[in-house]
Structure prediction request, 246 residues.
Amino acid sequence: MSETPITVLIADDEAELRGLLQRYLGEQGLKVRAVHDAASAERLLVRERFDVLVLDVMMPGEDGLSLCRRLRHAGETVPILMLTARGDPIDRIIGLEMGADDYLPKPFNPRELLARIQAMVRRQKLLGAHGGPLGDQPVHFGRYTLHAARRQLERDGEPVALTTGEFQLLHALVMNPNRALGREKLIELVKGQDREHEVTSRSIDAQVMRLRRVIEEDPSTPRHIQTVWGRGYVFVPDGGSTPGGD
Prediction:
C-alpha cells in the first residue's frame, strides 16, 4: 500500500516560481496547491488540511510574516517554512519568533526545498509517535501539562499551540529538569537524527523567547525557562530559582 502523499500549500506572488515548484514537487510525488497571496492561502486552509505551509515573506497585501503570526495565534500548528529574498538574518529571527519552523532564502534549489519539507514532515511524525523517556506519563509544571507522546502542551486542560521547533525545544528542556543546557547541547537535542534542518544558537534563543511568552506569567522574569549566564538555559519544573538564573 502506497503512503499518503505529502500535501503542501505554497503562497508566493511570483508566478514563475509557483509553476516551477508545482511541477518539481509534483514530479517528486507531493500534492501541491499554490496561490499568489495570503488571503487565498487562508481560504484554502479553512477548507483543506496540509502537511506543510510554504510562505513568501514579501507578498502583496498581507505579508507572510503577518499571516504566520495570525495562524499561530489562532492555534494553527501546521509546519511553516518561510521564503525570503532578503539577506538580513534579522528577518529569519523575526520569522522564528512569529512561529515559523524553518526558512529558506531565495534563490534556492527546489531540491533543497523538497528536503526541508520532507524533514519537517518526518519531525512531525517522530514527535507524534514519540515514546521515549517521558513515555505516556504527563509532566506537570505550573498551570501546564506536557504530553510527550501526543506532542501536546495544555494549560488548565486546554491545548496550547506550539510549532514543531518550539515543542522540540520545550521537550528537550523538560527531559532535563534543573540541568543547565548550553546552546550547542540544545541544538544537538533538537536536531536529533535530522541533519537537514538548520538549527542555530540564534534560532534557539528566538524560540526560548517565544516559549517564555507562551508559558511564563511574566516573560521578563521567567520561572520555568531560566537563563544560567555563561552556561545556557535550564528548565525548572516547580518554578523555583536557579543559581545564576534570571
